[in-house]
């Protein structure tokens, strides 16, 4: 019996009788982070890192049964030791370490190695078996340091102001949007945001995160407010009539998929910024190496290619099918 198994409901620990990020309702779920492909409605109970609790309640309802635990705080479930460790993907994002009878498995969820200033930075955890994502598991995906990316974003905003255009940035509403707000707050006086961003933003402000105030866009927002404004909206707003009121505007997409120029053209964007909350190729390799795992299972993304590379590099690796995805997905050939 493997310590963790891939089932039709999710990643299952038979010894502890719990699931990690299940995609179908189960009795006991341990959640890596609050994105919708990892945290589903309908489980009888949830366990997650403390910072994820209010985000889960926001998404799934205040009536869910949820327990928060601190990073690096071991708990026991039916004799199986479980601890959560920082993943750096977004606020509250955790890797799940499962230990039983001397065997250690780690489920990464989603992760990135660069410190974004808001989430607790990624912490490598040594284990026998590592379950890793591979959203950007190809050598073409190599991120610039975020300081350079944000410098380019601010320069783009400045150019738009000179042209008397609003700067509309598309970014995933939970995680990426807050990262933009946090990093740009010292350079931008005023942010207008879509309701999908304003709602989690308010929750995080209540929790004490150092984020700037924002103004929620409503049907009553005057057209004059958008002149030279910085607007942050989710990708779903891209082709919506919602944007017409902001004309003239320049559209920028913040996503790791912008590393490939053709994706920017397909999005009809004026600018693309390869800003991702997932590890790039080198980050994935660095993370796997740091675990010293003897065996690796590769989930969503370029799983076949990444598993093959690891195997050829001397690490036993297997691609597995799951229902996890990418919140900033545009085009992934393996999806």
Q: What is the radius of gyration?
A: 20 Å
Shape: globular
Question: Which regions have little confidence, pLDDT < 50, spanning 5+ residues?
Answer: 330-335
The average pLDDT score comes to 94
Query: What is the CATH architecture descriptor of the largest domain?
Result: 4-Layer Sandwich
How many strand segments? 19
Tell me the count of domains. Answer: 2
Please list the strands of the largest sheet in the order they lie side by side: 7-8-9-10-11-18-19
Number of helices: 7
Helix content: 10-25%
SS-based structural class?
alpha/beta
Strand content: 15-25%
Topology as a string of helices (H) and strands (E): EEEEEHEEEEEEHEHEHEEEHEHEHE
Q: Kindly report the CATH topology of the largest domain.
A: Metallo-beta-lactamase, Chain A
3D architecture notes:
The chain folds into two domains: 5-140 and 278-319, Ribonuclease Z/Hydroxyacylglutathione hydrolase-like (Metallo-beta-lactamase, Chain A, 4-Layer Sandwich), CATH 3.60.15.10; 146-273, Rossmann fold (3-Layer(aba) Sandwich), CATH 3.40.50.10710. It has a seven-stranded mixed sheet with strand order 7-8-9-10-11-18-19, with helices on one face. The chain has seven helices and 19 strands. 22% of the residues lie in helices and 24% in strands. A hairpin with a 7-residue loop joins strand 8 (80-86) and strand 9. With 335 residues, it is of the alpha/beta class.
List keywords for this structure.
Rossmann fold, 24% strand, 335 residues, Xnuc_lig_assoc, six-stranded mixed sheet, alpha/beta, single chain, seven-stranded mixed sheet, disordered C terminus, 22% helix
């Amino acid at each position: 019996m493997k310590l963790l198994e891939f089932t039709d409901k999710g990643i299952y620990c038979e010894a502890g009788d719990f699931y990690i990020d299940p995609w179908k309702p189960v009795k006991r779920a341990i959640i890596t982070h609050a994105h919708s492909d990892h945290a589903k409605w309908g489980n009888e109970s949830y366990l997650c890192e403390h910072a994820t609790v209010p985000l889960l309640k926001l998404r799934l309802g205040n009536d869910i049964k949820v327990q928060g635990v601190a990073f690096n705080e071991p708990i026991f479930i039916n004799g199986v030791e479980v601890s959560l460790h920082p993943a750096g993907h977004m606020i509250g994002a955790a890797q799940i370490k499962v230990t039983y009878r001397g065997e250690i498995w780690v489920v990464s969820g989603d992760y990135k190695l660069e410190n974004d200033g808001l989430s607790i930075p990624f912490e490598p955890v040594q284990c026998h078996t590592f379950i890793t994502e591979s959203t950007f598991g190809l050598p073409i995906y190599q991120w610039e340091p975020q300081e350079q990316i944000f410098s380019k974003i601010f320069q783009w905003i400045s150019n738009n102001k000179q042209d008397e255009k609003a700067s509309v940035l598309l970014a995933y509403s939970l995680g990426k949007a807050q990262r933009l707000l946090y990093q740009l707050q010292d350079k931008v006086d005023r942010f207008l945001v879509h309701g999908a961003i304003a709602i989690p933003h308010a929750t995080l402000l209540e929790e004490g995160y150092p984020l700037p105030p924002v103004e929620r866009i409503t049907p009553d927002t005057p057209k004059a407010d958008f002149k030279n404004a910085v607007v942050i909206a989710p990708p779903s707003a891209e082709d919506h009539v919602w944007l017409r009121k902001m004309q003239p505007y320049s559209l920028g997409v913040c996503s790791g998929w912008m590393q490939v120029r053709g994706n920017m053209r397909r999005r009809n964007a004026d600018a693309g910024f390869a800003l991702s909350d997932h590890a790039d190729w080198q980050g994935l390799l660095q993370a796997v190496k740091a675990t010293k795992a003897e065996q690796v299972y590769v989930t969503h993304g370029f799983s076949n290619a990444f598993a093959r590379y690891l195997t050829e590099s001397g690490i036993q690796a297997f691609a597995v099918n799951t229902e996890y995805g990418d919140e900033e997905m545009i085009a992934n050939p393996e999806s």
